[in-house]
Amino acid sequence: MKVVFVEFLNVFNDQHGIYSLSATLKENGIDVDYIKRMNPGRSLSRIIKNPPDVILYSSFTSSIQSIMDFDKKVKEILPDIKSVVGGHGVTFEPTAVSGSTIDAVCIGEGELVLPEFLLNGFQPIYNIFLNGMEPSTQYAPLVNPDELPFPDRDIIYNKDSLLRDLPSKQFFSGRGCPYRCTYCFNHQFNDMFKENGPIIRKKSVDYLLEEIRIIKGKYPLINVHFNDDTFIINKKWFFEFCERFPKLGLTYSCNVRANLVNEEIAEALRASNCLNVTWSIESGNDHHLQKTLKRAMTKKHILNASAYLHKHEIPFRTANLIGLPGETFDEMQETVEINIKAKPSLALANIFIPYPGVELTRYSIEKGFFNKENKLPRNYFTRSPLNFTKDEQKVIIKTFHLFPVFVKFPFLFYRKIYFNLLYALPKIILYLVYEFFYTLGFARWYAIKTSLRLKIRMAIRYALYY
Predict the structure, then answer these.
(1) Taking the model in full, what pTM does it have?
(2) Does domain 2-145 have CATH number 3.40.50.1580?
(3) Residue 56 forms beta bridges with which residues?
(4) Selected residue with higher pLDDT from 134 and 201
(5) Please, which pLDDT band fits residue 143 given cuts at 50, 70 and 90?
């Protein structure tokens, strides 16, 4: 049997779901191919030229329509090809592809069920149901990462030389997040799969370091970025990692959480070759931090964490949310202010997007902030999909663009003449200012030596995607 992954997501990042599934499928004797993100016509030509038995799609909410349109074109020419879609987009909205030509839907993790489903002729199994039938409600056990084969990066790196050649590559040290932030899918995932095994599953340090060694031996690698929501969630595991990682001769970066960062954690980060960390503040307003977002942290946690990281010279980047349901202009400015106090190397804001299945989306619908029939934007920096007035929308977009500028240069925020002048600028000017700060900020953030040629290729891909 031959299957092909067709990618509709941003392949500027490592695609861990495809890596893991490809390794598992190959272990079961299935031939696996990959078509990287390109225009639909070229992707379709590739499939017609070398037809697989099954096409596999990985979805986010924003990519579902493109996947359905593409699959329809494939079936018009090659009606015997089967297709399966998985990923976040259908896990939390299983009926999103109803009425389409897609044959089956995989909910949640697929490593333990997809090979059997494919080899047994599309017979429904845990997590996977045929399109048009009732979605699965009986799920397979959550996977133990140590029991899986090492992720198969070759499947993509053989087709994507830019991703292959980047000196900083992304890894996961485990799966799962215990927190119930209302804007994130994790709380919904935890509720769905809480009876199917431990939610938090770390790879053993042995497994993780060997996985990194394999990639270091095959591809350019200077820095490892861990994509886990909270890399430091298990302190015992983290301290073992900190003792052993430096022997690889690499640096690393990771995501942390303010309420978990203390003196001991910051000191261990510094001693173990940590290049920098990222963490989410999200809001500087007490009500939104505690009630709207349920962040399980306080502003004291935020300021203490920043102090510990500064003391041990760990650069950090912060993520924030604006355009929350019911959020006022003054409340958005509170988020700017707490970032100014925290003094990150780079601070960015995202505009809240009410994705299906998350608590804050349900709240937004119930309170009239969002009409579920509204089409979601492709990204989080063009507009808010909530029912803000035209003037409120302008303020949200301008705050999004000015956020990193104000945090970097607080006098522009606190001196009213500059503040008002900046908000009066046309949107296109603010967009260009933001792009300058964003690009420069990330260039400094990922201060890893690369060739000019590689930098140009990265810039071209970024421009084509955004």
Answers:
(1) 0.93
(2) no
(3) 5, 84
(4) 201
(5) very high
**Which CATH number is correct for 167-449, 3.40.50.80, 2.60.40.740, 3.20.20.70, 1.20.120.450?**
3.20.20.70
Using only the alpha carbons of the chain, give its radius of gyration.
Answer: 23
Q: How far apart are CA 315 and CA 224, in angstroms?
A: 16
* pLDDT tens profile 152-181: 999 999 998 888 999 999 999 999 999 999
* Count of residues making up the chain: 466
Say how many C-beta atoms besides its own lie within 10 A of residue 230's C-beta: 21
Where do you find CATH 3.40.50.280 in the chain? 2-145
From 402, 401, 405, select the one nearest 382 (Cα to Cα): 401
CB atoms within 10 A of CB 400: 25
Residue 221 φ then ψ, to 5°: -155, 120
CA distance 223 to 250: 6
Q: Which two tokens stand for residue 232?
A: 């430091």
Sign of CA dihedral 443, 446, 447, 452: negative
- Take residue 196 and report the two structure tokens written for it: 């199917």
Domain(s) of CATH 3.20.20.70: residues in the chain: 167-449
Q: Which residues pair with 129 in a beta bridge?
A: 105
CB 113 within 8 A of CB 144: no
Mean pLDDT, the chain, rounded, equals 93
pLDDT at 274: 98
Q: 453 exposed, middle or buried (CB, 10 Å; 0-12, 13-18, 19+)?
A: exposed
Query: pLDDT tens digits, residue range 51-109?
Result: 999 999 999 888 899 999 999 999 999 999 999 999 999 999 999 999 999 999 999 99
